[in-house]
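Recap from last week: sequence in, structure out.
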Amino acid sequence: MFGLDGRKILVTGASGGIGGATVRQLVDAGAQVYASGRSVEALKTLSSQTGCEVLPFDLASEDSIKGALDGLDVWGVVNCGGFGGEIATPMETDISVFDHVISVNARGALLVIKYASQAMIRAGKGGSIVNVSSQASLVGLAGHISYGSSKAALDNITRVSALELGKYNIRVNSVNPTVVMTEMSAFYWGRPDIGEPFLKQMPLGRWATEDEIAAPIVFLLGDGASMISGVSLPIDGGFTAC
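Predicted structure tokens:
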């Protein structure tokens, strides 16, 4: 269905909810998946459930990324690894937190593209890269100065990478999800004064599920999206259309 049978795909952030769901759907589609993430224990559990290969590395370290990807034969990449940072206004933000969010979400994704695309170009078989961005890059969300800035940078990394890699038949896209109500999200978006007004602005009026984010990622990787590159796709229940 997706043309992913036997194709080798790297997924970062696989120890998280969206990353884990993406690994499961890719394995179901026949892909051979390398799973990276912060929690080695969560990756081992995912591996025992899906058969994916565990490949941990540090998104904040170029040496770690280069070492892990050196010689790795991949056809596709999902940049799902990320760090949420803090909820703060521009007046209150901790610049050391801002720097770390940028380092992981934008710089780390770029480094993965840098080293993975080199192997993809050498293989000469084309490929597909999907970056997991956020609705926070498309609109201004209160308290999201660090996170939104990092994802806006990631969207531009997507566009420029699509421009540069297209001649090698490598497509690059991003998805821009709304909130998935995980335990990590609930501390902020679960507050009635925050979550309820937000959902009232969203045409579909509900939070996304992990599988609802993973499915478009798998689609963009696959052959059904073979003419799609340089796109930032909102998966947000219509929120950014308002």
